[in-house]
Amino acid sequence: MNNLMKHLTQPLQVNMDGEKRKPPLKITIFGREEYTKNYERFFSEAPFCETKTSLVLKELDGCGLLVLPGGGDITPAFFGEADHGSRNIDTELDILQFEALEHCIGLRIPVLGICKGMQVINVAFGGTLVQDLPTAYLHEYQNGDQYHATRITPGCPLSAVFGTNMTVNSAHHQGIRLPGKDLVPVQWCTLDNCVEAVMHKSLPVWGFQWHPERLDGINASNLLLQILGFEDILDM
């Protein structure tokens, strides 16, 4: 039984008014606390969700969704390269996030990687990165996020929510070169074909290169949880 089904089959909780409801979906953001407030706020807006930031592996056992947030760049040695333009490297955090991803995959806990988090997923599955995109000027943070059009694979879960064309926000200068094993790109920038989203063929693992936690105009927290398969919880 996967982690989502375990959650859905838990006994109903009874509140002080006698109402029965499912226990909250626990979301763990695996990053340094000083950089995760936007992610906590974003996911806390989703009904029946509780969020926290942690870097402790054993605290993941009871969570329903692991979020690998954005941040600096991954240590290039992890994908077999010397440093050719990587920035703000935090090797200790890289190791902890790789361990968290492996831990959650083993327990079938769904995983969502955002920006650097998507790159962590890609490298963990054997993929590689372009350390400094020749078209970085289209994507990197410049006094704020940049915005550009993307195309989405018709029929994938992402297209069911956003359609096949979507404008996203970017704040990165690296991108996927070679997708990791069984990771399927499902979204690309229309200007340079930079991969903007991936999903695993069989595991509940997603990666977004863009930043849903600060994308205006949509109820992104609910939509993301629907993509990841938690719509039954949101409807309760």
Q: Could you characterize the architecture of this molecule?
A:
With 236 residues, the protein is an alpha/beta fold. The protein has one domain: Rossmann fold. The protein is built from seven helices and 13 strands. Strands 4-3-5-6-13-12-11-8-9 form a nine-stranded mixed beta sheet, sandwiched between helices. The longest helix is centred in the middle third of the chain and has 17 residues. The protein starts with a helix and ends with a helix. The N terminus is likely disordered.
Keyword list:
disordered N terminus, 236 residues, single chain, 7 helices, nine-stranded mixed β-sheet, alpha/beta, two-stranded antiparallel sheet, Rossmann fold
Write the SSE topology:
Elements: H1 3-8, E1 13-14, E2 20-21, E3 25-29, H2 37-44, E4 49-53, E5 65-68, H3 91-107, E6 111-114, H4 116-124, E7 128-130, E8 146-152, H5 157-162, E9 165-170, E10 175-178, E11 183-189, E12 195-200, E13 205-208, H6 220-227, H7 231-234
Parallel strand pairs: 3-4, 3-5, 5-6, 6-13
Antiparallel strand pairs: 1-2, 7-10, 8-9, 8-11, 11-12, 12-13
Helix pairs in contact: 3-4
Named at the architecture level, the CATH assignment is 3-Layer(aba) Sandwich
Strand order of the biggest β-sheet = 4-3-5-6-13-12-11-8-9
Largest sheet descriptor: 9 strands, mixed
User: What is the global morphology?
Assistant: globular
- The Cα radius of gyration reads 17 Å
Number of helices: 7
Number of domains: 1
CATH class: Alpha Beta
The rounded distance between the terminal residues' Cα atoms is: 21 Å
Residue ranges: pLDDT <50 for 5 or more in a row?
1-5
Structural class: alpha/beta
